[in-house]
Every structure is written in structure tokens, then in C-alpha cells.
Amino acid sequence: MNVKSYEDTLAFLSSYVRPAAETEIRKLSDALGFVLAENLISNLDLPRFNNSAMDGWAFGSENIQPESFTLTCVGSAFAGHPYEGKLRPGECIRIMTGAEVPEGADTVVKQEIVTSEGSLVTFPAGVRKNENVRFCGEEVQQGSVCLKAGIKLRSAHMNFLAAVGVKEVVVYRKLKVGFFSTGDELIGVEETISEGKIYDSNRYCIKAMIEEAGFEPVDFGRFPDNEQKIKDGVLQAAVLCDAIITSGGVSVGEADFTRDVVLSNGELVDWKCLIKPGKPLAIGKVRNAYFFGLPGNPTAAQVTFHAIVSLALRRLSGEINPTLKMSLAYAGADNLKKKPGYTEFQRGVLEVRNGRICVIPAGSQKTGAMRSMVDANCFIFLPEQQGAVHEGDLLRVVSFYGLYS
Fold first, then answer.
1. Among 244, 365, 349, CA closest to 299
2. CATH for the stretch 51-134
């Protein structure tokens, strides 16, 4: 079994995993969470016309004086109800936020700093040309690329694309990710526990992680330690799904049949990835479906999915160069233990102390500790060469609320 660093593992996946080729056309309202399969061209300028950024008074910049100056109000403009006509020197209009700035005007002064008496409006010194005007096409120009292929659509994209008149988009279809468990010792949570049995917790977690990542989970159930039944399940999953995930069952143990099934019906690249918790990792293909074998330990399985497999699935779904979203936080304690040689994803809790974002360990960092994963709200990313951590050190963290953004 090969030994590879975390960075080497990600580099391998970037060349090994290729995006699923199938695309579909979806209405914009039904495209949230899908990945764009082609560049989007804007149908119009954004903004569509020069408009006011606030309530105030609009006029031409030729009227601006070093000191205060007075203009004559000749009308008004509201959103959807523009001023009809062209402003001449010495004139201004009352204008509301979003209203079209009329011909002859290029500057808006907010209402709070002007004084008016009848039709005469006095402006203070210091007015600047073009202020408080959103100019036509300053964000996007008609015919230009407004979003590039490979972007996963979020709510902000819905707003943006609707604003430029996009009705439908070409996207990669949502991945189907099959998963199953193997082992005579496993039972479902609906069953009564008995001697020598354990609950099949990983299968419930894997399903949830697949859904959280934005993919469609397909549950193939639980297989006993029987090579023919595992083979039947793997081959069925390979036909119906884009990827297959299992946990445990891919080591060189006597009853680890999943490994032999994958090798006999596809290809398997397995190694020890130098991450904690984690390490055992199997990557391969069965027919056209990618295969990912996670460690059997529940916490290690979660870390390996989030740190490695989720990125591979995002690449498979069509995302361009997916990465974990990291931010910075100060170590809030001296009890983060780390030795060089492994990349660690410690479970942490982000909190604010004296105006600074700090992170502390979320309880036990033992591989088998499950409670700390529940109490954590982030991973503390400690690179391979990182040694001991001291309070006040600046660390990278991966918020659980930003894993897939």
C-alpha cells in the first residue's frame, strides 16, 4: 500500500476524476445547487440604464461649484416612472432610488444634505461628479460572459441571472452517489441490539453527507460478508450511479470482500493518506462509476469524506478546481497537540473572544471519539509540517457551514 501526503492525494484526484458528461436544461427557478455546464452570456446591460443609488436630487456635473450652489427643480423621477425630457444647465430634478437618471444629468446628491425652498434647491460644497449614480453596463455589458462554466449555482446567482434576463441554464445533471455497508456485525437502528452486534451508524452518516454536499444519495443497504452478494450490489450500483461510497471492507483483512470485488470488476488505487483522523483510503472505478472506500472508523470516515471525497465528487459534478473554504482564527488554548508528519483535521469550536475569532478543540481528538464531532462547528486544519500549537497562533479553519460553498 502506497503512502501519500494529503496534497499528493488531492493532486491525484484532480487528474483522475473527470466531470460527468451528461447535461440538461433547467429553468432558472429550478437550477439552485446545479453546476453550470457552459458559459452564460448576458442578454442585457446591468444596470439597464443610469439610475440613482439613493433618494436625492439629480443634475449635470457642469453645475458643480467649489462652494455651495443653487439649482431650479423642474420635475421628479421615480422607479418605473422616469422624468420625460432633458435637463439643462441650472436645472435639477427630485429623484428616488432606482429611478432612471435623465438625459443631461450624471450626478445625484442625497436628500439629507440639501436645502430646498419652493423650486430652488441649494447644494453644499464638496459635491463630486458622478456620485450616487449606477451607470448603464458598469457591472455587466450585453453580450459578455456573466458567469463561467463550472460554477455551482447559489441563491446570489439566482438574483444575478434573473437581473440579466436569463430564463434557463445548461447544467450538469445532479450526481447519483450510491452507498452501502458490509459486515455481519452490523444492524439497523430499528433492530434490537444483541451480543457482538453494532449499529450501522456510518451508512446513516454517509447518506447525510452526500445530501449536505448537494448530491442525490442512493442507498443500496447493508450486505453480509458474502462476496457474491457484495459483487451483485457493487455492479448494480455501478450501473445506476456516478459514484459509489462505502466505509471499511477495503483493507487486506480475510473477510474484506469489497476490495476483491472492485479489483475483479474495475480498478483500485489504494494507499495510506497521511491525514488524521483517516489514513486508509481506496479510490477506483467500477465500469463508469468512481469508487471511494472510506475508513471504517466513524470519525475518520467523516473527515476523509469532507477533506477528500467531497472534493472529488464536486469535480465529478463539473465544478472547476473545487477547494475547501478556509478562513483564519487564533488558537484560543494551548492544548492543541500536533506532531509533524501528518495533515490533521482536528475538531474545533469557533468563538469570539475580545473581538477576535478564536478556535479551541471540541473535546477529545482521538480517532474513535464521536462526541467531539457533534460538538464541533469547524475543522482546525494543521498542515503536515505543523508542530505544537500555542495560544495566540494564527490557524486555518474550515467552517462546517462553508464546506461546500
1. 365
2. 2.170.190.11
Residue range 23-46+138-172 in CATH 3.40.50.620:
no
Q: Which cell numbers hold the place of 107?
A: 450626478
Residue-wise pLDDT tens for the chain (405 aa)? 577 899 999 999 999 999 887 899 999 999 999 999 999 999 899 999 999 999 999 999 999 999 999 999 999 999 999 999 999 999 999 999 999 999 999 999 999 999 999 999 999 999 999 999 999 999 999 999 999 999 999 999 999 999 998 999 999 999 999 999 887 787 777 877 888 788 888 899 999 999 999 999 999 988 888 889 889 999 999 999 999 999 876 655 545 688 888 888 999 886 788 898 888 888 999 999 999 998 888 899 999 999 999 999 999 999 998 999 999 999 998 878 888 999 999 999 999 988 899 999 998 888 878 898 989 999 999 999 988 899 999 999 999 875 444
Per CATH, the homologous superfamily of domain 327-402 is MoeA, C-terminal, domain IV (2.40.340.10)
pTM across the whole model:
0.84
Longest CA–CA span in the chain (Å) reads 94
d(C-alpha 97, C-alpha 82), whole Å: 12
- Of 31, 52, 317, 242, nearest to 147 (Cα)? 31
Query: How far is residue 381's CA from residue 4's CA, in Å, rounded to a whole number?
Result: 18
Residue with cell 458559459: 39
**Closest of 276, 254, 316 to residue 13, by C-alpha:** 316
Extract the C-alpha cell encoding 243: 459514484
**All structural domains of the chain with their residue ranges:** 2-21+174-316, 23-46+138-172, 51-134, 327-402
Distance CA 234, CA 391 (A): 48
CATH architecture of the domain covering 2-21+174-316: 3-Layer(aba) Sandwich (3.40)
Contact 228, 276 (CB under 8 A): no
